[in-house]
């Protein structure tokens, strides 16, 4: 039986530094993205993106052909957030800032890190342009968190601003844009009434659903005693 060879590990830091030097570098790149409303050009490498992310594998598949394809336009993605995603794909690390937090492209590990960052800096994140430019799925994943450090009233106002911006961009009614995310807002008056009813009828399990569950940043209110639920 042949003896297994010796597995040699190189240092991770120089490898990461070398890959970071390729980030948004037109040299040797074979794909160009036009990103955001500013239409910023971002250069990348198809093989690296495709092997690291299923989204880019589908986007940059054989249909683009060989050679330098036409630029891929991503007008709804903020350039700073897109560059943060690419940095993570190239180097497996990224430094997140409140202006560059990205929840997109199906990157589970990066999504978790971004969500944790927003949970810890909820009020600051809600005031950024990046929040207003979140996709509906991204905002839904955010609103499902119990750990947001912001009162629900502020979250409702932020969601309303998000819907108004989306309505203007998409040229659709505000109510239509807001519909998918409104269900994730909590402790509305009618939901509080339902919680009281469930409590009175000893059907507490019904009142323990997400709409009647307090977030980490929810301010104490008198009616919370009827919910009989702890803070997360």
Automatic annotation (TrEMBL):
Enumerate the spans annotated as BTB domain: 29-98
Q: Where is the signal peptide?
A: none
Pfam families assigned: BTB (PF00651)
InterPro entries for the chain: BACK, BTB/POZ_dom, BTBD19, SKP1/BTB/POZ_sf
* Matches recorded under SMART domains: BACK, BTB
Q: Which superkingdom heads the taxonomic lineage of this protein's source? A: Eukaryota
Sorted alphabetically, which SUPFAM superfamilies does this protein's record hold?
Answer: POZ domain
Return the PROSITE patterns for the record: BTB
Q: Please give the name of this protein.
A: BTB domain containing 19
Q: What is the lineage of its organism?
A: Eukaryota, Metazoa, Chordata, Craniata, Vertebrata
């Amino acid at each position: 039986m042949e003896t297994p060879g010796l597995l040699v590990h190189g240092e991770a830091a120089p490898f990461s530094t070398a890959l970071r030097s390729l980030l948004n570098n037109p040299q040797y790149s074979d794909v160009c993205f036009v990103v955001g409303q500013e239409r910023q050009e971002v250069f990348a490498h198809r093989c690296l993106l495709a092997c690291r992310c299923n989204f880019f594998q589908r986007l940059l598949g054989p249909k683009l052909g060989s050679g330098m394809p036409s630029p891929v336009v991503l007008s709804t993605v903020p350039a700073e957030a897109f560059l943060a995603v690419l940095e993570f794909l190239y180097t497996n690390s990224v430094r997140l800032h409140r202006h560059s937090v990205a929840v997109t492209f199906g990157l589970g590990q990066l999504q978790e890190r971004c969500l944790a960052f927003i949970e810890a800096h909820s009020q600051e994140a809600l005031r950024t342009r990046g929040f207003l430019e979140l996709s509906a799925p991204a905002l839904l994943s955010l609103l499902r968190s119990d750990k947001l450090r912001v009162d629900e009233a502020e979250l409702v106002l932020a969601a309303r601003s998000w819907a108004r911006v989306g309505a203007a961009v998409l040229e659709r009614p505000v109510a239509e844009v807001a519909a998918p995310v409104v269900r994730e807002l909590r402790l509305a008056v009618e939901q509080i009434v339902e919680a009281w009813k469930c409590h009175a009828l000893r059907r507490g399990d019904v009142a323990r659903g997400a709409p009647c569950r307090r977030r980490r940043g929810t301010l104490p209110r008198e009616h919370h005693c009827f919910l009989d639920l702890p803070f997360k």
